[in-house]
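Schema walkthrough. Field components (list of strings):
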Amino acid sequence: MSSTDYLAVAGAGVEAALASGADAAEAYLSSGTSIEIDVREGEVDTIKSAAEKGVGLRVFRGRQVGFAYTTDLSAQGLKAAAQRAVANAALTAGEDFYRLPEVVPEYLQVDIFDPGLPEKQIEEKIGLAKQMEAAARTHDPRVTIVESSTYQDGIIEVGIVSSTGISAYYQGAVCGLYIALTAREGEDHQTGFAMDFRPRFVHLDPEAVGREAAERAVRMLGARSQQGMEVPVVVDPYVMVSLLGMLAPSLTAEAVQKGRSLFAGQVGNQVASDKVTVVDDGTLDGGVRSAPFDGEGVPSSRSVLIEKGCLRGYLYNTYTAAKDGVSSTGNGVRASYKGGPEVGITNFFLEPGEISPEQIIGEISSGLYVGEVMGMHTANPISGDFSVGATGIWIEQGRLSYPVRGLAIAGNIRDLLNAVDAVGSDLRFFGGKGAPTVRVSKLAVSG
Amino acid sequence: MLVDKELLKETLAVALNRGGDFAEIFVESRQVAGIGLEGGKVERMQSGVEAGAGVRVLAGKATAYAYTNELDRNGLLRAARIASRALGNGGKDITLDLTTLRPPVVFEVRNPPETVPAEEKAEKVKEADRSARAVDAERIKQVMVGYGDVVQDVIVANSAGVHVEDRRVRTRFVVNAVAADGVIQTGAEAAAGVVGFELFDSHDPGEMGTVAAIRAKSLLKAQPAPSGRMPVVLSGAAGGTMVHEACGHGLEADLVQKGLSIYGGKQGQKVAASTITVEDDTTLAGKYGSYAFDDEGVPSRPVTLIRNGVLEDYLYDRLSAVKENGESNGHGRRESYQHKPIPRMGNTYIAAGRDDPEQIVREAGSGLLVQKMGGGQVNTTTGDFVFEVAEGYLIRDGEVGPMVRGATLTGNGPEVLRRVALVGNDLGFTIGTCGKEGQGVPVSDAQPTLLLGRSRADSPIVVGGTRQSSDDGPEVRAVKPGDPFKDQDFRLGRIRRL
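Field assembly_structure (string):
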């Protein structure tokens, strides 16, 4: 569809809602095409292509709000969805803070569409996945099983039209590589993975991703158990990202207003060590979650949430902002047309420091480098408690010396943030979340 | 019906006209309703209609899959052409007949959710909220209640001549309570099944609210869990996370064939104590992982995976079955038309044994009683798994002692199954969403009360609590992390509790 047709369909959705009795309405239309290619042992295992579109209608009636979605974009389909949305509104509790955002004169240009991507032939994409698998196997002969070597890309179009006059459209793209493999030596199996997602095709480096996955598996071969003790712990960027992921919900105004945030009532307080700066940036150059506007047409922005350990604020959508009497930060995020604009993260990351990972490790006489954790999804984002299994490499005299396994790390995310005493310069993104290498001065490791 | 037989045949013919050994079309229409309550108010009322179709072509070892949500002739044929071109280089014309299969089981839905007024659904949600708050007006700080129902109509047709039409109705209800008193703790209670609104005949929303709130409140006073190896009793009421993680995923044939399962090549061998029989029965009435046909149109049937400790069978979809010149045993499942089917669990359980659950606690001596399990994760290559304890108690001198919080259990699947000391005569199912390769499907699982290990030294389970001990601590080995690009982090086999 052209952007004009696109906005016409969304506009028809708004009209249908108003005709069904809504006082105000918004239509969020998205469509996308994507491809995913899995290669195993040098041959294509699976090719998946997708074409999808749908519309979500949010309607306001008095102090109430309702939502419905459909994949049927005909006049009849839109009408049925509009009627369901209005009926849903009638059953929700009324509130004074439901509203649509105001029109903005202009959105920031964000570079998120690689015009070269739609031109790429499938053979070239298959080639990247093959190259990545070969690089992993060549890197070390002990890499015996490649579970999947995957290339993925997607192009998305988003249009929002509202009865307050918003009429906005963008096109975005992302492409990436993912590999999961197993290295074997005798009876010892160790797994490794790596990934890289980018807005631009030319930035993909299959050799590097393949090598990294191989290295992550091979470095764990021969891992031994280790006595538990309280030691400095260096956290790998990927592991730090999963810890940050646990933090994210607590930094939304939604969680704060609902009494389920660790950080409620703490703005202006020191909530982490002064090495810690946490940012959400929907305008980030090269970020896979960057966009000119959020899921309700509010311009994306950069929000510093924790600055040198001090809590500066929370993320807002239009509703939570109205409740607190502030402006939306452009974080009304939609997972798809099937949901409303909930407060969520865009590109969410821990700001890098100035010191290299080698230096961070070099300052430790005895400690643990955590390379992987297991069971992070069982951590409790409301209390901040986590208890995870960990594997990694033991540090002796400032050097990574031997792989260890059979360890557990348990604690509370806030204690961990307070104990951060070094942040590396090596910021890396894994999808929309990023972190550099981080050192925690002391953590009880049981093993 | 969504798509008639003639168009299905035409689509399959186009899918195969560049060569290819097998073609299939999966058409789906999904009608959903959802309600979310928080802060004492119904905040979200949502409903949606989604329709789409996926066309799959198999050629040699390769699979092509294309999906669309344009269900007219143009849309379907376009998807079929995309799938055929992705792999094809030959060319052939086929004619095929489609024979409609009869379902092996019929799940009666007494009260179809699409006919229940939304007011009635909202009332259930409010009832749970009221009773949860009534548990302790001061300490219960937040209550979240979710209601959801899905009516999924599917058609599966393939070039082997199979044609299936099926309607799946699922209803679920989840209560989460947050208690605070200096510390914050949470408690949950959930119910779901392949049922309609009659879910509430057997699950009272008020009672569920009370249970969730009491669980959260009790945890405030609970002491941190101990760390280390110790005998563990998994209560029959605790759910089946252990069997799901310890062996279920490792018995999925695709992982076995890729060399990614510790259970590979062990058919006919002893892999568990003789008292252990593991079944996956998708024909069970009302369970969350039940279906009449799987998502490849294969009729559902019970499968015995381990009989008296001996590995008997794996879970197959068509593709993995064909690789071994066998037939699917009805476990090809997919999240939606947007996904290709892969081998998945349905209702997985360890069959009940003979021992008295109370006697099992007495025999444990001193250890941990797990009354409710949370989510878990497994590395199928090594069999190492981890799961969280949502409600646990110390056992002292064979008696149930005080509640503990923050425990995570780790162990190795085959080792744990070999060292099950006692098997109770009870069985309790729990429900969850199982994630694998980015696809979530509804499942249920169950275990009888089990005693794992008779002494500290003998126990195959390590408790990783927040109370640190330096002597013999937890042991967890490497596992692959998830795919954060999808923001759901479940590339690995793992389960999230509702």
